[in-house]
């Protein structure tokens, strides 16, 4: 059902291309994923009556419960109506946690990748013939090594940090 125009080698400029199908759109969605745009004004909203000290107390309380920095932000946004912690306090959530000595030992994205690798490895112990999971595990572990190398250069993890699949479950415990 393509709408091609017959052409000879002389009339190549007049070729009509097939209509754009959903295949092209799905590729574009991967290249440009949807995300919300932050407001240009960096001041806290006028309707927000919470003080910066209250927000910091909330962050510390949620961190002591064991929440990650991103889940703290989601909780503050959804339950307490604080759209952006940085606009209210002047600091990001992780900086507030670091100043109070509650920052996680390894960065959150690296921690979640290690957790995913442990889950896939556990799955592979039961399902040894799962070739796709084995391939995905290789991709996840290369992502871990790449991210660890980046964090070592930024000095956010110790230079002696080394991901090892045998001891990975102790990292996420």
UniProtKB/TrEMBL annotation:
Q: What protein name applies here?
A: Small ribosomal subunit protein uS15 N-terminal domain-containing protein
Alphabetical list of HAMAP family matching this protein: Ribosomal_uS15_A
Checking Gene3D superfamilies in the record gives: 4.10.860.130, S15/NS1, RNA-binding
What UniProt keywords apply to this chain's record, in alphabetical order? Ribonucleoprotein, Ribosomal protein
Q: What are the BP-aspect GO terms?
A: translation
Q: Which residues form the Small ribosomal subunit protein uS15 N-terminal domain?
A: 34-82
- Spell out the family assignment given in the record's similarity comment: Belongs to the universal ribosomal protein uS15 family.
Q: Name one Pfam family in it.
A: Ribosomal_S13_N
- Is-annotated flag, keyword Thylakoid? no
Q: Which GO terms describe its molecular function?
A: small ribosomal subunit rRNA binding; structural constituent of ribosome
Its cellular-component GO annotations read: cytosolic small ribosomal subunit; nucleolus
UniProt xrefs under SMART domains: Ribosomal_S13_N, Ribosomal_S15
Q: Does the keyword Transcription regulation apply?
A: no
InterPro entries, per the entry: Ribosomal_uS15, Ribosomal_uS15_arc_euk, Ribosomal_uS15_N, uS15_NS1_RNA-bd_sf
Organism (species): Athelia psychrophila
């Amino acid at each position: 059902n393509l709408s091609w125009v017959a052409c000879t080698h002389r009339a190549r400029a007049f070729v009509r291309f097939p209509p754009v199908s959903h295949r092209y759109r799905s590729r574009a969605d991967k290249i440009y994923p949807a995300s919300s745009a932050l407001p240009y004004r960096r001041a806290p909203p006028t309707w927000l009556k919470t003080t910066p000290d209250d927000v910091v107390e909330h962050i510390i309380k949620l961190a002591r419960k064991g929440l990650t920095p991103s889940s703290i932000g989601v909780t503050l946004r959804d339950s307490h109506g604080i759209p952006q912690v940085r606009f209210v306090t002047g600091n990001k959530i992780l900086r507030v946690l670091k100043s109070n000595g509650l920052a996680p030992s390894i960065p959150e994205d690296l921690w979640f990748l290690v957790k995913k690798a442990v889950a896939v490895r556990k799955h592979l112990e039961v399902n040894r013939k799962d070739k796709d999971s084995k391939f995905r595990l290789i991709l996840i572990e290369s992502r871990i090594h790449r991210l660890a190398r980046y964090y070592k250069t930024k000095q956010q993890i110790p230079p002696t940090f080394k991901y090892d699949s045998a001891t990975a479950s102790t990292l996420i415990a």
